[in-house]
Amino acid sequence: MTDTNASSQWLLLQSLELSWIQVYPSFVFGALTYLIIIVCNLLVSATIAMNKKLHKPMFILLFNLPLSDLLGATAFFPQFLFSILSHNRLISTDACMLQAFLIHVYGTANLLTLAAMAYDRYIAICSPLRYHIIMSPKKLVKIIFFIWFIDFSIMAVLFALFARLTFCSRKMVDLFCNNPSLLKLTCEDKTVNNIYGLVGIVFLQGGTLSIVIYTYAQILRVCVMTNNMDTRKKAIQTCGTHLTVFVILQVNTVFTLLAHRIESASPAMRRLLGLSVLVFPPFLDPMIYGLKLTELKESIQFILRKTLSKLRRE
Asked: Which of 53, 82, 238, 282 has its CA 20 to 30 A from that of 95?
């Protein structure tokens, strides 16, 4: 059935296939996961914002990561948890479009932020004497502005191209709204959308991967050539943390996108991969950075001790 007024439609998300016995445990598990994501990411953000010692390029760039993680998690979890309790998998077209837009903004922001952080580590390790000149406050503001400007621009065009299409189906193939699943609901010519999507994937996935590979190759070269063990240790610590986070996001995203492109891919596997993109990075990012970066870990511990001390006195 084709509906020219797509904004008035209700779309049906893929069933969770939960029995009555599984509803409340699933809701509690999901709610706890969301709560941990919120608390951990807000803690990292607040620590960076409140501690002047952390007002350095690396941590200011890192500040963007929990913001985008919170955006992605909040776009997904509230609706998901509500649908678990209500057994209602219906979502309005407008709400679905908004959810898809925010989820894609989250993923893109993470990729671009991690690429910028790789560039920052490259300058810090390969050109330490010129670091503060290259990564000046003015340059840092420009980098952050371009991260979000490029992100919102790419996603605005992506969803503007989609808005011109009409639906001939209302049953989604995924557990949440995203561009590939929405495109499968329309029977119109999607050539322009597919070409733009592929170009976007090559630019974002390929571009960020190229930056990380190049910067880490240069960092590795410097680490091999230097005799300073402290420099080596610091490089391995900061770069190892960053690389772990980048690989988790990149692998999850690439396999999810491929699963949508390959018709023979298992639907269950595709849904699981899609969920992993929304759960693992927001859940693991603050823990990895909070535990591995010494300055950030010490600052978080100080804030927690101070807060607990204040609560005891009260």
From this structure: 282
**182/201 Cα distance (integer angstroms):** 17
pLDDT digits (tens, 9 = 90+) for 205-263: 899 999 999 998 888 888 777 766 666 666 776 677 788 888 888 888 888 877 777 77
The CATH number given to 13-313 is: 1.20.1070.10
Residue-range domain boundaries for the chain: 13-313
Q: How far apart are CA 310 and CA 314, in angstroms?
A: 6
Tokens of 256: 């999810």
Nearest-angstrom CA–CA distance, 9 and 271: 23
Angle subtended by helix axes 267-292 and 294-313, to nearest 10 = 80
H-run or E-run covering 90: strand 90-92
Q: Single out the residue of 104, 215, 189 nearest to residue 154, CA to CA.
A: 104
Contact call for residues 119 and 211 (beta carbons, < 8 A): yes
Confirm if 9 and 170 have CB atoms less than 8 A apart.
yes
- The CA distance from 64 to 185, in Å, is 33
- Residue 64 to residue 45: CA distance in whole angstroms: 8
Q: Residue 90: phi, psi to the nearest 5? A: -80, 145
CB 139 within 8 A of CB 233: no
Query: From the CB of residue 254, how many other CB atoms can be counted at a distance below 10 Å?
Result: 14
Q: What is the pTM of this model?
A: 0.89
Which ranges of the chain have pLDDT less than 50?
1-7
Q: In b/e form, how buried is each residue of 205-229, taking b as 16+ CB within 10 angstroms? A: eeebeebbeebbebbeebbeeeeee
